[in-house]
Amino acid sequence: MVSSSRIQCKGAADALGYCHPVRRWWVGDDDDDDDDDGDGDGDGDDEGKEGVAVNASGVDKSHACELVAISPYPTAEATWPSSAFLLGSDLKLKPKSKPDVEPCKQTTHFQMLHFEGSLDWVFLPVLSTSASLVSTKPLFSPMSSLTPQVDSGESLPPPPPPLTFSTSLFRQISPALYLQRHLLHSPPTRPNGRSPSQCRDFTLTTNSLSHAHGSAVVRAGDTAVVCGIRGEVLTIAPGDDPSRFESYHSSPTSATHACGSRGAGGASWGGLIVTNVELSTGCSKKYPLGPPGGLAQTLSDQLHELVNVTKLVSLDSLRIYDREDYSDVTPNAKIKGYWSLYIDVLCISLDGNILDAAWYAIVAALKSSRLPLASWNQTEERVFCDSSLYHPLSLRRSLPFTTTFALISLPHSDDNGGGTTVLLNDPDSYEEDEACEFLTILSTTDFEIVEGELSRSPLAGLRTRVEKIEKRGGCKIGLRQIESCTHQATSKAARYIQSLMKEQLTPI
Amino acid sequence: MEGLRNDGRRWNELRRIHCQLSTSSTNADGSSYIEQGFTKVLCNVTGPAEPSSRQKVKQDSATVSCEVYFAAFSGTDRIKRGRNDKKVQELQTAIQKTFSSIILTHLFSRSEITISVHILSQDGGTLAACINAATLALIDAGIPLKDYVCACTAGQSTSIFDNEGASPDPWLDVNYLEESDIPSLTVATVGDSEKIVALNMENKVRIEKLEAMIAVGISGCAKVRAIMDKEVRRHGKQKLEAQGE
Q1: pLDDT digits 0-9 by tens, A394-418
Q2: Where are the alpha helices (DSSP H) in A153-275?
Q3: Which of A24-28, A158-162, B30-34, B161-165 shows the highest mean pLDDT?
Q4: What is the ipTM of this complex?
Q5: Which of A104, A235, A476, A490 has the fewest CB atoms within 10 Å of its CB?
Q6: CA distances from A326 to A280, A385, A389, A446, B162 (A)
Q7: What is the pTM of this model?
Q8: Is the Cβ of A240 closer than 8 Å to some Cβ of chain B?
Q9: Domain map (residue ranges) of chain B
Q10: Helices (H), A158-241
């Protein structure tokens, strides 16, 4: 049977929602085995199999676009039956085998449609969507001039009326244009109702997992990640050189430089801290179940690099010394082992900006981690962990946080006089799909807790600085935009710090 | 304390069960979360949807497929369980077979129903929690089922006689410590009936003990069902009220 039918349409496509008729079209499906061939009509089969392209006069090729692909399976997003909209005149719409069936009631009828006459019309299924639109007011006029006409439209006047769509349909079939229209609006509002500089609210819960040494759950909008941290003791064999771990951690190089030490056990590769991101968990329909894809691997590496570059965890809290009691380290104490940290990030639900959420979860989980006190036992020649005493990991004093922006380039228009780029703070997946690139800013916040100060003016004692900016090329943005981004990044970092401290202050 | 297990329960007591429906409504058609003691499981259900591959297309019924993920931090040791891990595959098969017989698959020909289970924390009774979570998620997705499938574990202390000379009672709903110590089984029943749809035991046990263990397991399933049913009704009521406004 048909797996998906595709309606393609060429010509004047930038007028989706505006006033050009669609001039050229074909209907076809991607599937070959057509079970309904028994009706025996030759050209019907051809239409079903290959799709028929029909030329109409006045096609402007520069406006080509693909309209929509339809799945015949009733899912939450697209619900059949749909109705057809016909524009223009001279149309004969004739279902082939079942003349009295209303066209397009079911997907299978796509194959049976037969068209004759001139082609100044467009045939579109209406996708009724369950996604609600958060926009405060409709920016686009709903169906005003287009009415469903299932009968042959011979009585329609020759000049085709302007084609408009409902907002939800427009959102689905032309996301780029939909986003642009929102952003060109004054004041610019994103489809999700936020302003470009506004980020989503987030919540943080730490130490909710019992088996992990530290854990955090972060929710930002519909993105939710769980981060768990487990420490494992890595004993140094007599011949081993501990400087391998030390040198790597203290040099701000990328993970690739550490490959030389690969092979001496899992933890030694890339230092003592191993990060792993699991995305293929059914968290989003875009990432199918299966082995980790490109994004998950990139993210794992990116986060690993961030941990190492920022020197987030102080190495001293990972060292296990040769001492019997837990007194202060004497200068001649020998390092007998290390704690290696396994950081696992599990994405439960993905709606854009996974990097920020994952990084924040990692920082919060590290901050809440408690490792058992470990010491070297001389007689047994092994590292022993205390069963009841724990110590927190010591992190660097000022915690770094990432802020990601999606760059959307807007085309030339009358209002701004030329193509510009808009930066969207904390993009969701709809915006991420349309973004030409991303800008990530790593900023650090210093805070001094003064007693009672926190409640009065939480951000007063904060000092922020930018540690890293990553923009990999793609769009041009001005200096001023970067400057405003850094301001947004610092204020977001301050909010992160604030929520982290609030979480830490509450008793577990 | 006399007659109490190491976590303070009596022989026929369940651990605390907390369950939730529609936990991640954006990316799945149905979702649920269940905590049985410290065992925490999250389940997403997608479908009925177009099958991901041609092989999964059945002309007369829906295909049920299941994916199980162990979070690396879920157990007491950090074991990364890959997709081809035996334990993972065993769980997947058990869940898939169980639900293929319970879902009214003939209503959705040529489509696929995917159950993905995430084990966030394991503390005994992992399979039972997975089955319970999957039932809730399928209910949330609105997929017609014959009835609830509820699962529970039961264990049997290996000593033949207890202090008073009587044979000891089986233990209901074993935790991780008990599970690693004594033989235990997982039993899943359909609805209120005492019909067993899944039964799994991996240890040796004396044959005369088996019936008592299964009986205790079935009684646990009934208790689990009551808790799940309560939550489903509460959630449904809440949803209806929200719609009515």
Answers
A1: 888 788 889 999 988 887 655 554 5
A2: 167-173, 175-184, 243-250
A3: B30-34
A4: 0.73
A5: A476
A6: 43, 12, 10, 30, 45
A7: 0.68
A8: no
A9: 17-236
A10: 167-173, 175-184
**Order of strands, sheet of B184-190, starting from the edge strand that comes earlier in the sequence:** B171-172, B149-155, B184-190, B196-201
Tens digit of pLDDT for each residue in A359-379?
999 999 998 898 888 878 777
Which residues 94-123 of B have a C-beta within 8 angstroms of A?
110-111, 114, 116, 118, 120-123
Distance CA A94, CA A112 (A): 8
**Which tokens hold the place of A120?**
């100044």
The beta-strand segments (E) located in A303-436 are 319-321, 335-349, 370-377, 382-392, 399-410, 420-425
The token pair that represents A6 in the structure block: 């595709």
A350–chain B Cβ distance below 8 A for any pair: yes
Check CB contact of A108 with chain B, cutoff 8 Å: no
Query: Is residue A259 within 8 Å of residue A332, measured between CB atoms?
Result: no
Query: Does an H or E element contain A288, and which?
Result: none
Cβ-defined contact of B116 to A289 (cutoff 8 Å):
yes
| Cα torsion A386, A392, A394, A400: sign | positive
How far is A29 from B169, CA to CA, in rounded Å? 63
**pLDDT tens-digit map of B186-244:** 999 998 888 999 999 988 888 888 899 999 999 999 999 999 999 999 999 999 999 88
Q: Which residue of B lies nearest to A283 if distances are taken between CA atoms?
A: B27
CB burial of residue A15 (10 Å; 0-12, 13-18, 19+): middle
Maximum distance among all Cα pairs of chain B, rounded to whole angstroms: 63
Sheet holding B39-49, edge to edge: B17-21, B30-36, B39-49, B112-121, B63-70
How do residues A217-259 score in pLDDT, each as one tens digit?
999 988 889 999 988 888 777 666 666 666 544 443 333 333 3
Most confident of A40-44, A322-326, A359-363: A359-363
Residue of B nearest to A288 (CA): B52
A232–B50 C-beta distance less than 8 A: no
Contact with chain A for residue B67, Cβ under 8 A: yes
CATH 3.30.230.70 fits B17-236, yes or no: yes
Rounded Cα–Cα distance for residues A263 and A259 (Å): 9
